[in-house]
Each structure stands twice: as C-alpha cells, then as structure tokens.
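Quick board copy: two proteins, each given as sequence then tokens.
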Amino acid sequence: MTATVATPTPTPFDPLCPLMGVEEEYLVVDPRTREVTPRAGLVVERAAEELGERVCTEITQFQVEAKTPPCAGPAELERELRHMRAVVSAAAEAVGLAVVASGTPVLGDAVPPPITEHPRYDLGIANYRALHDEQAICAGHVHVHLPDRERAVLVCNHLRPWLPALIALMANSPFWAGRDTGYAGWRILSWSKWPVAGPPPYLESLDDFERLVAALTESGALVDPATIFWDARPSLRLPTVEVRVTDVPATAGESVLLALVVRALVTVSLRRVEAGDPGPRVPAELLRVAYWRAARDGLDGHGVDPFTGRQVPVAEVVDGLLEHIRPALADSGDLETVTLGLRWLREAGGGAARQRAAGAAEDVVDDLVARFLT
C-alpha cells in the first residue's frame, strides 16, 4: 500500500537492462515464543535511522515493509537487499525482537490483527470490514522501469499467463497461525477474497485502464485508486510496472532471482507489445484455477497451463517459463544466474518445502530467522 520504488522520468530507459527495485514485507516475531508480535513500529523507528523512507509500517502492527532503490544489475540489487535486511534485523534485535520473511504467520494470535493507526487504514476498515482479519500476510513486489505508462498497461496483458508460475516458484506460506494449511502458498488464497485483487484484467490501452479505475472507485470497491491490488499493475504516476503476486521470499538470494525473472518477463513482454502483439486473451477462469493449483502445490506436484487448462508437472511449468524469458536473460547477461538459481531452488526445495522440513512450528520460525540474512 506504499509508493513504488522506481525512479520517475526522465530516467533513461535501458531496453536490455531496465532498472528494477524490490519491496519486501516482513513479520515481527518474539524470539522467545516465536509468535508474531504487534511491535513493528519499534523496529521501523530504529531501522529508519539508516534507511529513512525506505522502511515503513504496513497495515498491521505485525508487519515491516522495506524497499531497495532502483538497481541496474543483480550484484547491485543483492547488495541493497542484504543491507536492507541486515538493518531491519539489527533494529529488531536491538529491541528484543526478530523478523522473518514468510508469506503468513507461522505462530501467534493473528486473527484479527492489530491494525496500524492511520486515516487511510481507518477508511479501509470502514469499507472492507472483516476482510482485514487475515491481512497479516507478506508479499514480495518487483518494480521494473518502462518507457511510459501506456506500454506498462499493455505489458500486463502479456504477464497475466505467467503469474501462476511465479506463485509456484516463490510459494512460502504453508502455515497459518500454528496450522499446516496443506498449501504451499496460503497467502494467495487469503488475498484472493478482496474485490480488486488477483490477476489484472485484459486492458486495451492506458485510457481503458484509467476508465476502469475510475469506475471501480465510483463503485466503492476502492478506497482510492492506489488500492488497485492486481498482481501486475502499472504505476499510477510512474512509467513502471509492478509485479506483486508472490509471497515474500525467505532469503535475499531468492528475491534477486525473482527480480531477474520478473525483469526478463517484462522485457520479453515489451518487445511483443512493440511488435504489435496485443497479448494472449487467457480466460480469467483458467487463470483462477492456475492460481489455485500453483498456491496448492508450489514447486512440488502439478500446475495448470493457463493457455490450455491442461494439468502439467510443475517442472514443466518452470521449464516453459525459462524458455519464454531466455532471450531477454541472454541479452541482459543474466541467463546463467537465473538458470543456476532455478536449479538450486528445485534441488533445495521451495520456501514452503523448507518451512515444513524445519520440524515443529517453533523450529520453523527459528529457521526463518536464520535464513533472513542469507
């Protein structure tokens, strides 16, 4: 619910390596009980001494949000992410707390969560009511620079079919407040109840986007235009696209991998837009099913091909994603980094599998705390 991390125009646009930035949301936990604790404000206050406006509170008092500056390459982005996480972790430790990167709280009394005091959140509570009860959820957002907002809208048409693959790659929320949900990415199921969330609609133009946002605002479904929570969306004021579909990755290394995959997806999509390709009109019904299956199985089991509705092994989904973005990765010099990262993820297991492998719930939290700085 915060501003994007990308820089405003006239930043020069690099078609091979557009700038990218990452936002991450974390949960604050009590290191003794391992439960989420509503003291994020203390952590943010200390972390802001070094990070400034790049760290802030979120809608619940369990959450901290932090963001990188725009970065050109993976080395720069990894350096910024590790620094950002180190500052937030140290700030938590200084007040007797810890932070974890998990899409949902593993332990604690999380329903309903204590809401951060802010006039905008007050409006949201009045409008959305009990939808806030499961808002202690954390995502990873990637912002990618584009030439203009018109093309950002059209790029989203091409991103839609690949969003389930991103969900599967970064699924990192198997537990909800002490219970194993049976899903790899429970956050996506919790989030899908909101009126303007999930995959973006197919849009013909920037004017089409702005007319729809105006209509949704007039309908009362939005508190304001910034509460468009589609999983891929153009910025309201900057020439960027934001992909916000995944759980927050457990490690900084996975966040870098996610950002490179997303940037390559955006780059390939932009090339198709500029070649006059309007993008595939994947039915919303198939996307919804593909979302569900990706959230259920993560990197284990099967996914759904949103182009056909066919059930396929998740490994096939990931291979298809890599093949789709290969040209952009080769041009940016990121092909080897992403290929090795995806191989590591398959061998080590996704975030959900690693959480389950850690053992009892308390051990899961301890493992997440340990991985936070890796």
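And the next:
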Amino acid sequence: MTYPSTVIKGHGTGNDFVLYLDEAGKYEPDEEEIRFLCNRHFGIGADGLIRLTKPEFVSDLDDEAVTDLYNAGALWFMDYRNADGSLAEMCGNGTRVTAALAIRYGLATVTKDEPFMLGTRAGVKVLTRLGQVEGLGKDVFTIDMGPWKMGEQGEFLVSIPGAEGSCRGTFVDMGNPHVVSVVKEPVEFAFDGYGMSMSIEINDMPDIEELDLTRTPVVEPVLSAGQNAEFVRIDSIDTHADAGYATMRVNERGAGETLSCGTGLCAAGVVLRARTGINNWTITVPGGTLTVSVLPDRVYLTGDARLVAQVKLWS
C-alpha cells in the first residue's frame, strides 16, 4: 500500500480529513486507496485526504513549480485529494488542519512573527496561529487565501434535482472553482419611465435549512471542471461597523455536502461584498463559525482546526 500504517484524523469546523506526514516521499496514494481511507463505512471516513510532504515528492508538480514554491519560502506542500480520489487545487479548511499537523511534528511554530508558508496547487498560502478566540474555537488560525476573481453577478442558473425553485449564481475563482448563490433575497424589479418592467431577478430557491444538498446542484451553463456550489443567506449587516453576518451550506466537488468549506466561505464573502459593500463577514456553517475579510486583492479566512485521533491501520 502507498500510505503509512498510522494516520491522523482532523477537521476544520467539521470539514474532516485523513492526514499524514510523508517526509521521504514514500506514500503517494492512488485513487482507490484514497476512496478507501475516506469511506465512512469501510474506511476511516473523511471529506478528503491530506499528505504533508516536500514539493519535489508531488508527482503532478514539474521542476519549475517546485523551484517556485521553494523560492517563495514553502518548504512543505499540502497534497490534497477529494474523497473520490480526484486532485483538488486548494482546501482552505485543510490548510489550517495541515498547519496543526506541522506543529504536532515540530515542522513549524506558526506564530504571527513566524508564519507558516504552505505550498498548494493554488500557490503558497500564509498561515498564522491565533490560539483560542471567543466564538471561533480553541486553536484558531488565519490564512491569507491570496487573490480572488469574480465573474458576472448572477451569470449562472442553479437548481437542485428533485426540488422546486432556482436561483442565480455567481462564479468565483479562489484557486478552485465556485458558484455562489444568495438565497432568500427579494425578487428585484426594474421599471422604465413608462412603468414597464425592464428586468426581473428570479430567486425562489428554498431557505438554507430546507435545501437537500445530498443531491449535486445543477449549474447552467455547465463548467467543464465542475464546481463547489455554495448557498448563502444574509442574516444581518452593520454598515457602520463594516460587518455582516450570514449562514452558508455547500456541496463540494468530489465530496458532496460538507459541514464547512474554506474556499467556499471565501467565495461567499466575495459575492456578499459585491452585493452589499460589506468587507467583513462572520459566516455560520453546519460545522461552526468562521470569519472572512475581503480585500480588493485577497481574502483572509479565520477559523478553528482540530486533530482528533491517531489511527493505526490494519492490513
């Protein structure tokens, strides 16, 4: 087998992973092994697998990419795979749990003065450790998620198979693809000077708690690489404090519905900022609460990370 006999189980606000350290590059798993380890009935169970290793031991990175990572200060790489075995460009919650793993093995201290430079397929991510933060958790990390790109607002039509209603979705690139839909917004009407309707924004998707995200949402037009589909509801905003509060659920590409999605939270923050002008968001997901701060050129994500068990695998 191409994974070690002992692995770690961890999660970031309920987005859970099987993790292990591979210092010598001996344990790059294949798709079948990943599906086994992440299987919740026959394996350990997880939304994805994380191998913490050196950049040169990641088979899909070429020499130039490896050199670029080292030049940027990333001595370690988060080799992340979805539960179905497919490669993933990034995982925001996974980076925090990976940082916790690096601390456990003495590879990094991850303080404000000594941030952890972690290589990913979406570039180098910079993490700092805050410790206990009220409302967020006992071992909280902030990650600079880097730049974001947003498409035209409402460009996509999003629906859920077998369910009534649909809403408009907006594409956001966080190093991996997302389509974010804001639910429970009023239908917007626009009129010309003669009282005639010029445009109508249709949004009759059920509320967040009523969505059946065990079914993969349908996004039209189709994105060839697939996407994570986020559904977010604005709960309140405080324009004077530049603060907003929202609730989100997500169906992740290659994993199905998860309790949290770090890149998805950032994508939601980008869309909410475009909708409201509010830059700082506290977002509740089924697995907990995190904060997202959106700047013109980057996004910061802050949330908890936990290592919960060491698991000995039997052959």
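Board note added afterward: DSSP finds four helices and 21 strands in the chain.
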